[in-house]
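# nightly structure sweep
# worker-07 picked up a monomer target from the shared queue
# config: single-sequence mode, recycle default, output format = structure tokens
# input follows
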Amino acid sequence: MKDILAYIDEKKHQFATLPFFDFLKDKTIDPKLRLSFAPCAAPFIMSFGELNKCILRDESTDDELQHLINKHTYEDDHHWVWFLGDLRKLGLDKSMRFTDVLRFVWGRETQRTRRLCRKLVECASNATPIQKLIVIEVIEATAQISASHIAPVAKELESSTKKTYRYFGDQHLEAESGHAADSTESEFFIQNLKLSDRELTQAYAVVDEVFDVFTEFTNELLMYAREQSHKRMVENSPDEHDYLIIGAGPAGLQLGYFLEKTGRDYKILEAGNAAGTFFKEYPRHNKLISINKRYTGYDDTEINLRWDWNSLLSDSKDMLFKNYSKEYFPNTSDFVKYLGDFSEYFNLNITYNCKVTQIRKNKRFIVKDSQGNIYKAKRLIVASGTSKPYIPDIPGIEYTENYANVSVDPDDFANQRVLIIGKGNSGFETADNLVGTASLIHIASPNPISMAWKTKYVGHLRAINNNLLDTYQLKSQNVLLDAFIERIDYSNGEFVVDFDYTHADGEKESLVYDRVIVCAGFQFDDSIFDDSCKPELTINQRFPNQTCEWESSNIPELYFAGVLMHMRDFKKKQSGFIHGFRYNIRALHHILEKKYYNQSLPYKVCDINPTSMTDIILERVNRSSGLWQQTGYLCDVINIPDNGGSAQYLQDIPVDYVQDSDLNQNDHYYTITLEFGLDIINASPDPFAVERIHKDDLKRAELSSGIHPIIRRYCKGILVSEHHVIEDIASEWKEDVHVQPLLKFFTEQLAPSQPIGRHLLDAGLLTSEQLEAALAEQEMTDSVRLGEILQSQGLVKERTIQFVLDRVNSNWANGQNIEVYAQLGEHLVEAGLVSQTQVDQALQEQLTSDQRLGEILASHGWITPKTVEYIMKYVSVAETTTEPEVAILN
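# output follows
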């Protein structure tokens, strides 16, 4: 066998000189193009597992060599899984019609690949273990040469894409030893196998045949790759996409996840060399203020996202941030690691080291990067955040330092007087870092601080950063200044700052500092847009102006994701933070699918009855993380169709999108939100001593200050009615005080509330002629209600109209489960249809008669049988009757 192995090694060296391997080594060619042969190799790679399992493996033998072969096949039959993953990472996993897939797999491009598959089956079928071993040795020899040339190309790609290529990279190379032997002992065993002269002759022939078909296969791969290179030069197709996303931070990755999941054509352009590079620098002290609560008492992932402010939305429990950090306030390095793994786990299409320098539009968006590469797209989504420091317009501000680049070493500020401009978290984060070394710290802005624990807005000052407040209140040389800064002068190493105090009766003062640091936040950088697509700015030019769909207000098909979405709820809700905008981005994706691909907004089906609607709403508000995080900004929508059938239940829709889209054209729909009673909280001097209503005080549920569900009914965008589910200390709305009032609300709302004229006509209190005349008069006087006209004409009493409105419309659907009313006579008196005297007389007659009360009243002409029937049908509840028009309650 030694001679055969030596011959295989000789042929292996000849195989390594093929032009395909020179092509792979040519670094002037894009590495993706050098690996573009992959689809052509698919028939061989995908059938290789079957070759191992069905042809080379034989479990029924005791032959020692066959056992060695079997072991090898188990190690070698799963590499196709790596191959599929790498196809996706290379962007070669494009959607194709099934017939196109079949045409490619059995087409011209892969005919030599298919011949290779047939030859391997032919040589190994019904073969002796020695003949199988020879086939395996040739396969291993060619695979080792191929992998040793392909792996360096994959490494080039890994440095730019930050993706790991398992099949084309080092992992496969390390798995290809070049031999079937897996140990010194087995190698010795193979080399010392004895072959007869006939077996030797056959062996040499098999080696030649297998190397020949592998050579043809390799040449076909080269031909295919060169064709792809030509297509790239002619069509420039890899640079054109339906969507371009600028920025591979959490927002870009979140949108990329949804686009990847639905198979859309997109690319993410990232200036840095990895995902989430912003968090390598910010916050400056490497501590996130977004909470990572790993233990909540719940097993439901959806509920747990209420207290997980860092995870992106996905269908994988592996990609939850709690798997990356145990800290309640995590370190930024853990978050960067998480974002990198997220991008790789879901095979997101990202180009790194791609700094965008110019964006213009000519029908499509044309994006240029710092290396001169051009990208085109139908739609552009900017997810780069507010990356430019916001500089207040103050004379002398140019002399100051900025949060973005100031030293974070406290010793650099030893015994210095420091002024910090800005009372947000970055300002207090900076101050907290200097409390131990600076001689004094002043924090200034025109307005007082806003505490997140009162406003419920997490962008306001958080407890983790408010240590300075303690030093201020306890006279430790640190001060908060509510003041306008009129001027900053710098001379002889000192800053003289002129203040105009806002809460000191017009006092002005000049103070001296050693350092002035601007911590006024960040703003959107629009400098990369030329005049053909420069977005309109708003909020002190800090944000791009946007529609309810997060589309630029002046540039069609330019969208914004992530922090930039905060323009729609600036300093009110949580769109400026991951735990808020991750839901916005999911909603944006649904809107894009509806707008450009005619996909309906996702919805569930709900039966239109009080019980079903109460159940589905309470189930949602007790689980939903989106409604919880984006209080009052996102809502669920229940659309009641005009033609009956089932209702549509939509989840996590922006409230202003509902009002501005075709959703508000429905005659009957509900929104469901979770909201705080902010007016009540803000009216209280102490946010920790807010007066709460009793949990059973259902009549005042709208005074709930804690987070609670609110259900609103609309007709064509106009609010019809509103119901508050009373607050609960555990924020679980499962008790009768939550369920029963909501059930009653829907019972009333879903009752077939007819116009008053129709009710009076059905009750026999109006003729059709009288009703038509009254309606005609109403058309000429729009401000007058129909009931007022009927009263003015003396046709119906006010008491009767009010009775119908109060009792019939509100109680039609209640039936016996809501209330059983008293005798028929009482209803008729209440409605003003008969007098109490008439009822008393009829009751006396009933004592000596077998007639019912309704029949006696009708026999006197005091009321019609039709009216009796109507009252009994809609108001009273009969015990037993076959003729409801004469039913009474005794």
